[in-house]
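Q: I'm building a small set of examples for a reading group on sequence design. Run inverse folding on the following structure and report the sequence directly after it, with nothing in between.
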């Protein structure tokens, strides 16, 4: 098996969000679930993707944190298809199908990788907003309210009034883990608007899955785009740019497109930092 270390949602080293990518051979089966979890734990990145080609246009990808398998991971998908493009397995200008636990999702190969998210879903689960903002260490937004949204993985989308408040946020990680488990979400994706060219600046926290903070999150930014669309802030056919990872010193730029049909595509590229062989 070939192993790649990547910086996803970045075109330069030391930016974006690191992900491991394990490329299986044509007739090579997936390792056991325990082996894949232990491999992800050994690499110590938030997610590691294991990918296998099923046919000329079909791939199966499984995603693992150091603790468990997850249905989908946006930044690891960007990393995976950047690796496949670099190896000449996928070609620019073509569209492929990525078979995941979240469904069969289209991936478009261009200068950047554009990946389809799972069907957007607003999860109507009542949230204790006072407790949520207290745990996150922020004040409630004056006009917007937190909501649970999924484009493959459920996250609480948390509006914050100013960029300064977003940067100062210091969540109670133990309580955030408990409330994430209570609501059945991966974590909290907080955002604030700023007077610049970005749609919003964001921070993502998922301590329940061993990720205190993440520097680039594809699925959560897809969910944020759907949230903003539901609030009438962005329309169909528009492109969003979300800036993440600044607080961590790993700035990332995540592009999200909402099609005329309401489909969500998350786009970007990855920098391949290292390549080697995995002996397991």
């Amino acid at each position: 098996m070939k192993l790649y270390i990547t910086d996803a949602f970045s075109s330069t080293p030391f930016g974006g969000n690191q992900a491991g990518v394990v490329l299986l051979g044509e007739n090579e089966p997936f390792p056991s679930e325990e082996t894949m979890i232990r491999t992800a734990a050994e690499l110590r990145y938030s997610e590691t993707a294991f990918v296998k080609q099923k046919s000329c246009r079909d791939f199966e990808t499984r995603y693992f944190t150091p603790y468990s398998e997850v249905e989908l991971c946006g930044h690891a998908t960007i990393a995976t298809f950047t690796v496949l493009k670099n190896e000449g397995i996928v070609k620019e200008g073509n569209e492929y199908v990525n078979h995941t636990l979240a469904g069969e999702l289209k991936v478009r190969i261009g200068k950047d990788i554009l990946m389809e998210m799972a069907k957007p879903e607003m999860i109507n689960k009542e949230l204790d907003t006072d407790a949520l903002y207290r745990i996150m260490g922020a004040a409630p937004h004056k006009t917007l309210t937190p909501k649970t949204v999924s484009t493959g993985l459920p996250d609480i989308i948390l509006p914050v009034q100013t960029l300064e408040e977003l940067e100062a946020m210091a969540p109670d990680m133990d309580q955030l883990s408990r409330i994430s488990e209570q609501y059945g979400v991966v974590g909290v994706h907080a955002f604030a608007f700023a007077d610049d060219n970005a749609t919003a600046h964001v921070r993502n926290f998922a301590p329940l899955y061993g990720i205190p903070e993440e520097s680039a999150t594809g699925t959560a930014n897809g969910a944020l785009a759907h949230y903003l669309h539901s609030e009438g802030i962005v329309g169909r056919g528009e492109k969003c740019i979300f800036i993440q990872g600044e607080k961590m010193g790993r700035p990332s730029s995540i592009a999200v497109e909402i099609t005329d049909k309401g489909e969500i595509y998350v786009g970007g590229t990855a920098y391949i930092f290292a390549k080697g062989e995995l002996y397991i």
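The first helix runs from residue 33 to 43.
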